[in-house]
Amino acid sequence: MKIKLFIIYLLTGFLFACQNKPEYIKNSGAIFGTYYHVTYLQPEGKDLHDLIKDEMHKFDMSLSTFNPNSIISKINNNEDDVQTDTFFNAMFNEAMSVSENTNGAFDITVAPLVNDWGFGFGNQERKQEPDVKSILPYIGYQKVSLKNNHIFKQDERIMLDASAIAKGLSSDVIGDLLEANGCDNYMVEIGGEIACKGLNPKGEKWVIGIDKPMDEFLNVGHELQTTLAITDCGLATSGNYRQYYYKDGKKYAHTINPKTGFPVDHNLLSVTVIAPTCMRADAYATAFMVLGVDSSLAVCRRTPDLECYLIYSDNEGKYQVVYTDNFEKYFNE
User: Fold this and answer.
1) Bridge partners, 320 (sequence order)
2) Three-state DSSP class for 130?
3) Do residues 163 and 119 lie in contact, with contact meaning Cβ atoms separated by under 8 Å?
């Protein structure tokens, strides 16, 4: 009788433990002009959404060019004695590293060009083509430096735009917040840029889809090119099939080549990069959209812990795919 009672006690305790096992929590909302989705397992079942929103607000006050009170906006407006913070410093140091490694294909001083082409935080009337020659003298990552939490510009007309790296960094920042609150399993997605760790609610790696690079007005359902299974890394995708406009019958893509000053015009349609951090993946994805297929593969292959998946169009307009050797391990079989 005692044995039966003991077994019943064990079973009851087991069922009670199962019933009280924390479940994955999902938070979502709008931020930075886009949307975010966060899925995480908090050991005590705590909903961290308020903390997440607070951290995003702090981030916005640092790196949003659409926020007139942010640090980056004050720097662009040449306000006196603007002091940078940890978010800004992390962004700047990574941006300089990627710029060096890509020979300036990635460049946060591209802001005046992005604005005048109608894609940035400035005038978006797009009435006439910018005077590129007059803007190029104020473009160049070597013309800015960071010392003692202050930005120094060679010319006050230099402006910074962190939009090609900030969303990736924000995903990392929220990932760090989750880890600081005991979460070892999570996925953070902000505007398509992903930071993840551990396993999903099914106990598997996080499954991510890569869209076919079709113009957004034609690809209503976002048809997938392939799916990946990833964990403990950052992922970012860049392409010119969503942000663009037509003027006088010509298509203008949102990716601007910092060297020429003009929107890119080549056969590379989409780039997906996997890196140790989402910030790094985000920056390289943008750089690769500037560089094109061959140069992107060369940079990726010589850069440790970096993998890429490129979709391009051949001479007949058909989609083709090429990727680095180690990218194969991420395909969701």
Assistant:
1) 312
2) coil
3) no
Nearest to 273 by CA among 219, 210, 201: 210
Max CA separation in the chain (angstroms) = 92
DSSP state of 184: S
In whole numbers, what is the pLDDT of the chain averaged over residues?
88
Q: Which two tokens stand for residue 108?
A: 């946060």
Half-sphere exposure of 251 (CA within 13 A, CB side): 11
Q: Is the dihedral of CA 61, 64, 66, 68 positive or negative?
A: positive
H or E stretch at 193: strand 193-197
Measured CA to CA in angstroms, residue 164 lies from 26, 109, 169, 263, 315 at distances of 26, 11, 10, 15, 29
pLDDT at 59: 98
137-140 LR contacts (CB < 8 Å, sep 24+) = 138/109, 138/112, 139/107, 139/109, 139/110, 139/112, 139/113, 139/258, 139/261, 140/104, 140/107, 140/109, 140/258
Tell me how far CA of residue 134 lies from CA of 131, 241, 253, 257, 259, in angstroms.
Answer: 6, 28, 21, 15, 13
Strand partners, 145: 152
Note the pLDDT tens digit of each residue in 283-331. 999 999 999 999 999 999 999 999 999 999 898 888 999 999 999 999 9
Please report, in angstroms and rounded to a whole number, the separation of the first and last CA atoms in the chain.
51
**Positions of the chain with pLDDT lower than 50, given as ranges:** 1-18, 217, 219, 244-253
> 170-183: per-residue pLDDT in tens?
999 999 999 999 99
Whole-Å CA distances, 89 to 7, 230, 235, 267:
59, 28, 21, 34
